Amino acid sequence: MHVNVTIDCCYRVKKIVKEKMAENHKEEFGLLWDYTHELRYYVCFDALKRGWKAGCRQLIGLDSCFLKCPFKSEFLTTVKRDTNNQMFPIAWVVVEMKCTDSWVWFLSLLLNDLDLEDEYGYTIISDQQKGIEIAIFDILPRVEHRNCARHVFANWSMRKLGKSYESLEKKYTHVYDNLMKKSPKMWTRAFWGTTCKSDIVDNNLCEAFNSRIVEVRF
């Protein structure tokens, strides 16, 4: 056709085409949140529920990741550890953002689906995400809650904290005070219960699951 166009022109055309392709999707996606009480973006297959009850440890990992599609949202997941210490995803949900309300909603559904009414004897492990600690305390106050040790350490990894509480308190009073605000049961193995029969200190199973689904998150 003997037509010469600049790179900038190509970028502009590409942008226009993508915007037109996304218009209908954007309108329909925007309507979904109006039906949040009728349409729950929650998945927990019966086979996974039965598998959890029959062959998994009483350990529940919680995590979230971004859905990197044109319409941003959050993907909350719960992954269990089976008797072979392998990854066992059990439920997932799409929410508008990770906050206390979304975690409360997710945990309320898990409470019923996984028969966690008794609560005692179960352990939840998570990183230090905003709102998740409040949600666990509200919905499952009797479960043991552990913080992922890797995330706890990452908060202070740039500091030479010393090998004891005493040296930490002397050198970094604010760090010591912040750490002591949390229950030792959340980050110290010596204070953990023995009912879930697992001494893991990280949340790698959830993060491994999120990395496995990275292609479909776009």
Low-confidence blocks of residues: none
Task: Report the order of strands and helices.
Answer: HEHEEEHEHEHHHH
Give a count of the beta strands, DSSP E runs of length 2 or more.
Answer: 6
Shape assignment: globular
Tell me about the largest β-sheet.
6 strands, mixed
Strand-pairing-aware structural class? alpha/beta
Q: Report helical residue fraction.
A: 40-55%
Q: Alpha-carbon distance between the termini?
A: 35 Å
How would you portray this structure in words?
The protein has eight helices and six strands; from the N terminus they run αβαβββαβαβαααα. The chain is globular and about 75 Å long. The chain has one domain. The longest helix is centred in the first third of the chain and has 26 residues, at 7-32. The protein is of the alpha/beta class. Helices cover 40% and strands 19% of the residues. Pfam families: MULE. This is MULE transposase domain-containing protein. Residues 60-155 form the MULE transposase domain.
In short:
By secondary structure, the chain is an alpha/beta fold. 40% of the residues lie in helices and 19% in strands.
Descriptors:
218 residues; alpha/beta; 8 helices; 19% strand; MULE transposase domain-containing protein; MULE_transposase_dom
Give the helices and strands, then pairings.
Elements: H1 7-32, E1 42-43, H2 46-55, E2 56-67, E3 73-82, E4 87-95, H3 100-113, E5 123-126, H4 132-139, E6 144-147, H5 149-154, H6 165-171, H7 173-180, H8 204-212
Parallel strand pairs: 2-5, 5-6
Antiparallel strand pairs: 1-4, 2-3, 3-4
